[in-house]
Amino acid sequence: MTICAYVTYADFELDDERDLVPAAWREAGIEGRVERWDDPSADWSAYDAVVVRSVWDYILRREEFLAWARRVASVTKLLNPYAVLESNTDKTYLRDLGVPTVPTHWSSQGLPDWPEYVVKPSVSGGARDTTRTTDRAEAARLAKELEAAGRTPMVQPYLDMVEAEGETSLLYFNGRFSHAVRRSAMLAAGATAADNPRAQLRTPAPDQVELAEKVLTAIPHDLLYARIDLVRLPGGAPAVIELELTEPYLFLTYDPQAPARFATALRELL
Ligand SMILES: Nc1ncnc2c1ncn2[C@@H]1O[C@H](COP(=O)(O)OP(=O)(O)O)[C@@H](O)[C@H]1O
Ligand SMILES: [Mg+2]
């Protein structure tokens, strides 16, 4: 029997997809075992594939996480592949995507004049260390603070469309569209982290599908999972805010067919 690891982290209870996924794998003839990425007793070579999922603490120790990923990739199939994880865990990849992205100023110096700013580190998740401010000097100060800590700041205009239309996340498994969701604004006044999972299934617009597929075509690797997070710029054009190829929540409970599609994609890549 084929056996694959579903890789999570110490606070695995927070991942409500960790039972659903192995159950769907079983239907596809794959046994799934939940493992913590930083469990020293795990034998990664025993798996036909090691599937990175809720490794939500890598933000705090990216080098250690990447060293782990390199080790795993040397003994078995790692999904997504190591090269993808290495580039995707630092949002500087947005510079080289070759598609429209949210305008970003990568330094604390010479900030553009925008009505409102978002300042965030290039290595982050779940809007950690991410601040919204109308004060340009405050934005510069926050960016400088990140630089002083050896991090790369990202300064962006605050896109208030995230409060009306919301962010659209498109899920692809082995390159095939599975489903899409609308996600609510995380930096809206009064929003909390608990709002994030409160998403809803959404049919993506043709221009969003076109952009998402352009992004995927540009990546020369097999991707078991890809979540492409899109917003709209003030003129209405879609733009990538984030490309989630490392540890995305997949919104699998939102579409009854999604877990089976994920399992089929894994089967294809084994
Ligand atoms: N420029 C922006 N305008 C409006 N909202 C933003 C902006 N940047 C980030 N956000 C909000 O913060 C959330 C987290 O930012 P994101 O860039 O996706 O990083 P991560 O999810 O890795 O923390 C987004 O989902 C969005 O709700
Ligand atoms: Mg995000």
From TrEMBL:
PANTHER family recorded: GLUTATHIONE SYNTHETASE, PTHR39217
Protein name: ATP-grasp domain-containing protein
InterPro entries from the UniProt entry: DcsG_Biosynth_Enzyme
Organism: [Actinomadura] parvosata subsp. kistnae
Recorded superkingdom: Bacteria
SUPFAM superfamilies: Glutathione synthetase ATP-binding domain-like
